[in-house]
Amino acid sequence: MSTLAAARADNFYYPPEWEPKKGGLNKFNGQHALRERARKIDQGILIIRFEMPYNIWRGGCESMIAKGVRFNSEKKQVGNYYSTKIWSFSMKSPCCKHEIVIQTDPQNCAYMMIRAS
Question: What is the CA radius of gyration of the chain?
């Protein structure tokens, strides 16, 4: 076994009480595989890291958010365009903590700004 393969095989602790026939380690520990990111998964919301696709100017607090700035965002499906899912991303503005909502537009291969108060 190479050194890299051996390193990847480490860091997995299986307690003596765990049995493979009862499920994986996540089920044994009572956790979701995505851990904290999946805390709202029952509502259809997943916490992701979202990168701003273009520059936006915030009228309420007179500040600009540049393209490429990253946010923790709540991702949820809001509809379909034929068989393509339409996703909504909601996040808090870093300057004034108001909500910014961006939605995918599969028809035009773009993003739409829904709310940026």
Answer: 20
